[in-house]
Please model this.
Amino acid sequence: MTNPSVPDYTPLSKLPNFDPRVVPVIGTDAHLPAVRTSALTADALRQRFAQPPAWQPEVWAEKKFIDRPSTQASVLVALVMRDRPAVLLTERTTHLSTHSGQVAFAGGKRDDADADAAHTALREAHEEIGLEGAHVEVIGSLPIYTTGTGFIITPVVALVSPEHQLTLNAYEVADAFEVPLDFLMNPAHHRRHMIEWAGNRREWFSMPYMDGGTQRFIWGATAGMLRNFYRFLSA
Model:
C-alpha cells in the first residue's frame, strides 16, 4: 500500500482516503484486567496521584512525520465525577489544520504567559468548551506524549464537578460528550490497529464507544494517552 506522490513522513490523518475506522484490527487486550471501579472514585484517584506507583507509560512517542520545531502543549483529561465517572472529550471541527474532525481532549499550545502545564490545559479548556476553573480540581499529570506532528503534550488530569456548564467554541469544537471512565479503563475495549505505508509499519490504539446511535471513534494520540492512564491506574 504505497503511493510515491505521498512522502513516508505524512501523518496518518493526511494519507489519501485514510479512514482509521476501516483499518483492520489486529487484536484487543481482553486478557488484561480492567481497573476496579473502586479505584475510579474521587478519593481513590486523588490518592493514586498523591502516592503514585512504580510504572512505565506504554505509548509515549509517535514516529515524527513533520520536520519542524516541536511545540509544547497540554490537554485536560477531565474526569466528570458523576455516579459513574466519565471522561469529557471533544470532537474537533473539520476545517482545522491539525487533527481536524478527530476526538480529542480539550487543550492546545502553551502560551508564554502560562505559568505551567496545568495553566495551559485549564486556559485552553475554558477557551474551547467554556469549562470554568471553579468546577475543576487538578490532581496530577501523566507523562508527556509526543505526537508525530511535533506536539509535546502534557496530559493534566482533573476532577470536574457534574454541575459544570459548557459553551462550545464553534470554530474549534463541533461537539463535546462524555465516555464512562470504566469503559475506557477496560482493555477489552482497547483495539490495536496496524497499517503498512511506504515501507513503514504504523500501529495505534482505538477505543470506539457507542453514544446512543453515534460511534465516538477514539484513536491516535487521545487513545494513546488513555492507554497510559490505564497503565497508571492498573499498576
The CA atoms of residues 75 and 234 lie 22 Å apart. The first strand starts at residue 25 and ends at 28.
